[in-house]
């Protein structure tokens, strides 16, 4: 026997007072992030929101710049989102990383191809994964380090994009070490040259201008 139609009036419908703001923030986040799959991204958004975790939301609207050769779907903005979500731990579980990657509507096969550059079983040092992601964005070591500085810096957008020399040198050695054709002596010579440019500073920070000046001297 079908149930009778239920009539509702305004007094019967309870709308949680926080719902309008939640939906407003969700809409703004979706516009700013421009997910390829809104449903997949929305699941990740509300899952993170319910757990009080960093949301899969870009800082600003970003138009991907890619070619047929380098089009992986990954952008600097998306990599920065992953950094916000994963960098609170030194190591990231690969299963959790894959879920966050999928929530950003990125192709799983690209993640697996990236991880093949430095295979590991269940977890990976986050800074190393970030470095591999930066190398995927540009393809060259020079471009990878530029992307790294722009993601890690606390400087305002368009500023010098400074990060600590300790972090820079660690990532540079790691990425350069993956290239069997790059002599170890060249790696250390470059870093020594770079250190000379900033050794007079007390904060031990390196910016993009220092990076490219040192690069020209080699």
TrEMBL record:
One of its GO terms (cellular component) is motile cilium. It comes from the Eukaryota. The keyword Protein transport does not apply. Transmembrane segments: none annotated. The keyword Cytoplasm does not apply. One of its GO terms (molecular function) is identical protein binding. Keywords: Cell projection, Cilium, Flagellum. Gene3D superfamilies: cAMP-dependent protein kinase regulatory subunit, dimerization-anchoring domain. SUPFAM superfamilies: Dimerization-anchoring domain of cAMP-dependent PK regulatory subunit (SSF47391). It is found in: Cell projection, Cilium, Flagellum. InterPro entries: ROP_DD (IPR047844). Belongs to the ropporin family. This is Ropporin-1-like protein. It comes from Loxodonta africana. The gene is ROPN1L.
């Amino acid at each position: 026997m079908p149930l009778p139609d239920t009539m509702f009036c305004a007094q019967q419908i309870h709308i949680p007072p926080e719902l309008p703001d939640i939906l407003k923030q969700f809409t703004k986040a979706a516009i700013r992030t421009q997910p390829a799959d809104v449903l997949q991204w929305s699941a990740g958004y509300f899952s993170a929101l319910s757990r009080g975790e960093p949301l899969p939301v870009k800082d600003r609207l970003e138009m991907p710049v890619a070619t047929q050769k380098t089009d992986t779907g990954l952008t600097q903005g998306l990599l920065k989102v992953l950094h916000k979500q994963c960098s609170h731990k030194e190591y990231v579980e690969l299963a959790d990383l894959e879920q966050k990657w999928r929530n950003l509507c990125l192709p799983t096969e690209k993640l697996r191809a990236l991880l093949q550059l430095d295979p590991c079983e269940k977890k990976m040092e986050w800074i190393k994964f970030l470095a591999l992601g930066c190398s995927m964005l540009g393809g060259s070591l020079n471009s990878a380090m530029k992307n790294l500085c722009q993601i890690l810096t606390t400087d305002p957008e368009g500023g010098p994009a400074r990060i600590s020399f300790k972090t820079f040198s660690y990532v540079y050695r790691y990425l350069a070490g993956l290239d069997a054709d790059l002599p170890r002596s060249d790696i250390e010579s470059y870093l020594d040259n770079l250190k000379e440019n900033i050794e007079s500073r007390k904060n031990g920070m390196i910016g993009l201008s220092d990076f490219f000046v040192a690069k020209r001297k080699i």
